[in-house]
Write a structure and sequence with these properties.
The relative contact order is 0.15. Strands 1-2-3-4 form a four-stranded antiparallel β-sheet, with no helix packed on it. The protein has two domains: 326 residues, Up-down Bundle (Outer membrane efflux proteins (OEP)); 88 residues, Outer membrane efflux proteins (OEP). The longest helix has 68 residues. It is rod-shaped, with a radius of gyration of 40 Å. α3 packs antiparallel against α5 and α5 packs antiparallel against α6. The chain has 424 residues and is an alpha+beta fold. The chain is built from nine helices and four strands, in the order αααβαβαααββαα.
Length: 424
């Protein structure tokens, strides 16, 4: 039994941690592939904004066409003087095979939809950056919370070990009493049952500890064997909330999409044109001919009827309304959470104080009970209750401390506070 207990204690009692301090863990969380996805999303949204801006620039390109016709075709619209050239036996610009090549260009002068799209892209970029911050703070909060859970398991494991040692000493004393006939053998069974219950608790803690270590490794990529120390530097505070900011950017972007769909109905103004060289073989003389043909045009387009535009705008309006409702709900949820966390901190601090006093009182009473049970002035059942009271008081203290760290990390994520400034 002692060997089994030792194995359980090895799983619960800490070894050497690979992390130097909590800041190293927080930095490690920001280097994981999961967080890098958020960083890449920010880069992608920035490129989306650049693409929206790029749509306002001219488009210039080269072209080439090899054309074959079943009858002579003009290389370009001919003037009256060129049309009369055939009467004098000269080459006319008509050919059955024509090679066209040159430069084309197209530039928007004013397209309102593109300007709205650029503003929407900027809002989405800001939302992506806010989402990245939320992701990082959420990972930091999880690291602090898991480290506090590991601290809780470690403390409770040591408390169970201490109670185990105390009960083993009582078991030895009671075994002498049973051997000399001063106590019934059933007393040994009662102590052994309590020891078995402690072994079960230790086994449960070992399983929870493995789960916690697995989650820490998934978040940080680091192998942990013990929790790192944490000291509160400053309580996180704030008046704005990152999740509300993200929802606001999303609602604003949805409203810009409504404007963009509406702007699709506006007239557009653009410059278009080309510089073209045209080569062929004159059908009447068989000689090579070349004509240049250039164009520049200012184009106005006015949509008159396109029913899909109305449908697209209606869809955008519904999406914008959904985004506004989501923003309103986020504000309600976040305000309720912030208020609850603010109210919970004093309660947990009081719980910590009460638990510390309870531990001191329970240990004092246990000392008295230990002497009393060994002298026969107290029943074994009463003594075991005092042992249980000490363990319960210690568990309450470790749990209250863990919950306090959880609340503080939640507040930091809520207010957008870097946990490096909250804990060391």
């Amino acid at each position: 039994m002692k060997i089994a207990i030792a194995m359980l204690i090895c799983l619960i009692v800490p070894g050497v941690s690979s992390a130097v301090d909590i800041h190293e863990l927080l930095d490690a969380a920001a280097r994981q592939p999961g967080y890098e996805i958020s960083t890449l999303s920010v880069q992608e949204s920035g490129l989306q904004q650049e693409r929206a801006t790029a749509a306002l620039f001219p488009k210039i390109g080269l072209f080439g066409r090899a054309e074959i016709y079943n009858s002579p075709t003009n290389l370009r619209p001919v003037t009256p003087t060129e049309a009369s050239m055939a009467a004098f036996g000269e080459s006319v610009p008509f050919s059955e095979e024509i090679l066209r090549y040159g430069l084309s260009f197209d530039a928007p002068v004013y397209v309102h939809e593109l300007y709205v799209l650029r503003r929407k892209a900027d809002l989405l970029r800001q939302k992506s950056e806010t989402d990245r911050q939320l992701d990082l703070l959420g990972r930091q909060a999880a690291v602090v919370s898991l480290n506090s859970a590991l601290t809780y398991l470690q403390g409770l494991g040591k408390a169970i070990e201490a109670r185990h040692a105390s009960l083993n000493k009582t078991l030895e004393d009671m075994a002498l009493k049973v051997k000399t006939g001063r106590s019934p053998e059933s007393e040994l069974v009662k102590i052994q049952k309590t020891l078995n219950d402690l072994d079960q608790q230790a086994n449960d803690l070992a399983a929870k500890r493995l789960d916690t270590l697995r989650e820490i490794k998934a978040l940080t990529g680091m192998e942990m064997t013990e929790p790192v120390a944490m000291t509160l530097l400053e309580k996180p505070e704030g008046t704005s909330y990152l999740s509300v900011d993200a929802a606001q950017y999303n609602a604003d972007a949805a409203q810009k999409e409504v404007e963009r769909r509406r702007a699709a109905r506006y007239p557009t103004l653009a410059v278009t044109g080309f510089l073209s060289g045209n080569d062929g073989e004159a059908y009447n003389t068989g000689s090579h001919i070349y004509r240049s043909y250039n164009e520049a045009a200012l184009v106005v387009k006015i949509p008159l009827f396109d029913r899909s535009l109305s449908t697209d705008e209606a869809i955008a309006r519904v999406q914008a309304e959904k985004a506004q409702k989501q923003l309103a709900q986020t504000r309600i949820d976040v305000a309720a959470l912030a208020d609850a966390l603010d109210r919970k901190i004093p309660i947990l601090e009081k719980s910590i104080d009460l638990a510390q006093k309870s531990i001191a009182d329970s240990e004092t009473l246990l000392s008295v009970a230990t002497v009393a049970v060994r002298s026969g002035r107290m029943t074994l059942e009463d003594y075991l209750r005092y042992e249980s009271d000490v363990l319960s008081a210690q568990a309450a203290l470790y749990q209250a401390r863990q919950q306090r760290w959880q609340v503080l990390s939640q507040q930091a994520a809520l207010y957008g506070t870097d946990l490096k400034g909250v804990v060391k």
